[in-house]
Amino acid sequence: MSDGTWRWLAWALAASTLAMASAANAQVTRVRGGDFRRHEVRDDTLLRQGRMEAGFSLAGSWATSHVTRADGTTDQQHSVYAIPSVVGGYMVLDWLEVRATLGLQYVGSGIGGDASQDHFSGVLTVQGLAQADFGLGVGGYLGLGLGGYYGWRNQPTEMAGVRYGFQHAGGVGQVLAGLLVQPGASLMFRGGLRLDLLYGAEWPSNDALGLEGSSAFNAHLMAELSIGWRFR
After folding, report:
1. Minimal CA–CA distance to 217: which of 203, 196, 191?
2. What CA–CA distance (Å, rounded) separates 108 from 123?
3. What is the structure's pLDDT at 9?
4. What does the pLDDT read at residue 124?
5. Positive or negative: CA dihedral 15, 19, 24, 28
């Protein structure tokens, strides 16, 4: 081959080598430094001082048993305890929330299909909840509550369709424990157990009937579910 041909081949080889090197450099991603390892991503929307909460809760329990009479007949005995409430709260600290609840307390009990009693009360409580963030929008809570109730009940009599009326009032103590989940920046779900301790007095609505008043202490262990929204 002539010198011109060799010179042309040398230039072509050099150009192709340079093109491949440029393409290889374009496909390589270089990371310089390791400062990104010093940064931490944190989601602190779950528990934060100054946030407020508004929502609804439902606590309740149900029990049934069978009672055998002296004549051998068996009746079913049941009791229902339910309290739907509206809830408002404020985060005093990053871990402590103070809440107020206003609800309607219903207690139903009876033996068989005819004899039944219905208790209705308005309930107001103030709760303090200690809360912990487990991460990924999941946390737990443990709390105490105090409040009071006022209401009435109807007691069946031996005469069909006739019931005695009673009024009652007293205090409420609460112990709460459970889990909370916040899937977004504001929506929150709670689920757990609640123990209500009630002590109060009862008196007849009509003194002319000759009925006597009484005092009572009751304890109810319930499941509680709630939905709420947190905002500033």
Report:
1. 196
2. 16
3. 56
4. 97
5. positive
3 state DSSP class of 101: strand
pLDDT-based confidence at residue 218 (cuts at 50, 70, 90)? confident
Written as one letter, the residue type at 68 is T
Q: Residue 212, Cα to own-chain centre: how many angstroms?
A: 40
Structural tokens at position 167: 């009024």
Which has the closest alpha carbon to 183: 215, 220, 229?
A: 229
Report how far residue 185's alpha carbon sits from residue 208's, in angstroms, rounded to the nearest whole number.
Answer: 59
At 29-76, the pLDDT tens digits run 555 555 555 555 455 567 889 999 999 999 998 877 666 666 666 767
Per-residue confidence (pLDDT) for residue 109, from 0 to 100: 76
pLDDT at 4 over 80: no
CA distance 101 to 88: 7
State CA 196 to chain mean position distance.
16
What lies within 8 Å, CB to CB, of 22 at 6+ separation is none
Distance CA 223, CA 218 (A): 17
CA distances in angstroms from 9 to 12, 17, 19, 20, listed in the order given? 5, 12, 15, 17
Query: Alpha-carbon distance 28 to 20, whole Å?
Result: 13
Choose among 117, 123, 118: nearest CA to 105: 123
Tokens of 23: 């393409």
Asked if residue 174 lies in contact with residue 127, where contact means CB atoms within 8 angstroms, the answer is yes
**Which amino acid belongs to residue 66?**
H
